[in-house]
Amino acid sequence: MSTRDRLPLAVTLGEPAGIGPDLTLQAWQRRHQLNLQPFYLIGDVDLLVRRARALRLDVPIAVVTPGETLGAFARALPMVQLNERVTAKPGQPDASSAPAAIASIRRAVSDVLTGHAAAIVTNPINKSVLYRAGFTDHGHTEYLARLVQEATGRAVMPVMMLWSPELAVVPVTIHMPLREVFDVLTTELIVRTGRIVARDLTARFGVGRPRLALAGLNPHAGEDRTLGQEDATIVAPAVERLRADGIDAVGPLPADTMFHERARASYDAALCMYHDQALIPIKTLAFDRAVNVTLGLPFVRTSPDHGTAFDIAGTGKADPASLVASLKLAARLPVAAQALEPAK
Question: What CATH number was assigned to the domain covering residues 159-295?
């Protein structure tokens, strides 16, 4: 039995008033049909009991330690109980939401870094709810990086990749107003991102020589500087530096012609200069199958590529396809070489 087979996946609660609990309950119900690797949910058992009742789902729950997950998974949804009790109702986050979501993430990172879990699958959070509670990180990805540094003393640069069988995209700049992209985007940022993507495509996805396609920032990739200077002065030099590193990189390419089927066959991942440039094509092609994968971490982390969907939480309308895809991808990506000891 491999290390992978001996370890369960750690699933975080996400925003407790959102659809994360619904999706997790549904995924466990289909565990045999979908041949899912055993996983445990980190959160409040009472919340899951209430949500299962609201959804009329017959899901027994077993309170476990991570090591007891494999023995319990066939008969019950394994849960690691946190001290944070949740009072939030479906679609109605309250003061209990943020502490529960944050505690669940922290426990999952601790479990995977100490070798008790194979990977982390995170249910969606709602950043505005966390911000109102004093959350200081920009988002989920940045918080994971901070937890890694706190635990190991090692700084990491997390990179968000949206992956599907049809397309993999990486937004070089992520959640910011479009007007700020021009201030933040630099050749160095693109190069560092490209190096991490190339490394993890090989180490995690088994791509021997990753092919990266870099999108232009401006329409038509600047069209010979007539539609902006940035593609010539920022993106093109990044492509040259990546090539000098031995990475198969091309660009800057016009973003309006690089996502059709024939073009996608020519690269393994597209590096896009801003959020929507990356997410519009992948959500158009694979809305229910796209998975958010965080590259650059010492462990595997995947997440559904959608939000908390407060409007349908607790109604039974939520589709678990993206969570299932996240579980399946996390199960097949290699475990980190070894567990990391906390920093002294």
Answer: 3.40.718.10
Confidence grade of residue 21 (pLDDT, cut at 50, 70, 90): very high
One fold for 1-156+297-344 and 159-295: yes
- pTM of the complete model: 0.90
HEC-encoded secondary structure of the chain: CCHHHHCCEEEECCCCCCCHHHHHHHHHHCHHHHCCCCEEEEECHHHHHHHHHHHCCCCCEEECCHHHHHHHCCCCEEEEECCCCCCCECCECCCCHHHHHHHHHHHHHHHHHCCCCCEEECCCCCHHHHHHCCCCCCCHHHHHHHHHHHHHCCCCCCEEEEECCCCEEEECCCCCCHHHHHHHCCHHHHHHHHHHHHHHHHHCCCCCCCEEEEECCCHHHHCCCCCCCHHHHHHHHHHHHHHHCCCEEEEEECHHHCCCHHHHCCCCEEEECCHHHHHHHHHHHHCCCCEEEEECCCCCEEEECCCCCHHHCCCCCCCCHHHHHHHHHHHHCCCCCCCCCCCC
For the chain, give every domain's residue range.
1-156+297-344, 159-295
Instruction: Select the more confidently predicted residue: 164 or 134.
Output: 164
Specify the CATH number for 1-156+297-344; select among 3.20.20.105, 3.40.30.10, 3.40.718.10, 1.20.1530.10.
Answer: 3.40.718.10
pLDDT in tens, 83-112: 889 999 999 999 999 999 999 999 999 999
